[in-house]
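Deliverable D4.2, example record:
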Amino acid sequence: MTNQEATPSFEQAMDQLERIVAQLESGDVPLEKAIELFQEGMKLSQLCGQKLEQVERKIEILLEQDGGMVKKPFQPGEEKGDNR
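Output generated by the structure prediction step:
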């Protein structure tokens, strides 16, 4: 099994996480199975968080500065800009 197969994509992990949540919310899951599902859900949640952090680090925004365009790393909370 390759690393690509072992680690689901963000979309796959989110789909799987949604299925787990639906199962747990149904209330028809035995306790042992619910614990397993919860643990799997926590791992998927962490994986999704890591993938989002990786993407966030890669995102750059283009800013107009001194008549030209400048690339700047994305910083959470700065997405609204200065509005000058």
